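Blinded run. Sample ID left blank on purpose so nobody reads anything into the name before looking at the predicted structure. Input follows.
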Amino acid sequence: MLFLNENLLIIIFPVAFFLIFLFIWGIIRLVNIWNEKKKLVRKIQQSGYDQYEGEYDDQSEILITKADTTGRGSKLLSSLFGSVSKLFIGDTTSDFDVVTGKFLRAGLRQKNIETAFWGAKIVLPFLFLIVFTILRATVYISLTTYYTAGIVVLGSLLAFYLPDIWLKQITDKRKERLLKALPDCLDLMVVCVEAGMGLDSAIKRVGDELSLSSPDLSGELNLLNLEMRAGKLRKVALNNFAMRTGLSETKSLATLIIQTDKFGTSVAVALKVFSDSFRTQRFQRAEEKAAKLPVSILMPLLLFIFPVLFVVILGPAAINIYRMFIQM
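Blinded prediction complete.
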């Protein structure tokens, strides 16, 4: 009977804690969404619909039609998580529109990726609770109640935020790939524009040329070209491009092209100056990393290399001294 009571306590306490946490989190999100809507209405009333329309296009029309490129297993997992997400959160898309930019910056354009993400955040903590309960009842029987409660709480929180950690990691890796490919992209654009091509044609040509060396940047450029060909303003398309990449360099590039187009200056000269300044910044970042290298390598030297050197150099001398004292 005591074993059953402990197991019931192990199951009921973490489930109740997680449900309370999920309820508080949902209330906070609803309050944030309500505040965003009030701020949106207030901004429309203050500045007028025509003035606000451009800003709305810049920020919210990144919700493009997404191609469903997932495999069969990914589709099944996405649909499962999506069903769970709709069951708990509902079918409203206003909550998802706020975070869609995060998925676009991570390069995730699959269908229903938002619902799959929120479904994973709900399913993973319960999955952890089920697995840990089975292990507690079969393997870790001697584990105390306090340690069990601590592991359950920390594990549930970690499982809840695990999709966010995964999304941040793939976003950072994609940003690094885009940043490495951007100098070559700028050079190719300068060559194409100086050869007499228009900006739209140069973007299309550069996107095709980078399809093998940098698929991420090539896809963003092709998407930028498709938006402009579909009739979207160049300003809006460039701002969407900068928002999807999430880099300050692409934001500066979009601002440069917009200002050049607005004032009628030479695009080739502006791109050439920007390319030179960007390469200077890249060289400065490399110098900064080189300057940080001695400090970064200090701890591995102290922990791994110096002890081995001491053993190799002083080891034979210590053995000879030990033998000498034994013979004495």
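Unblinding after everyone has recorded impressions. The CA atoms of residues 106 and 171 lie 4 Å apart.
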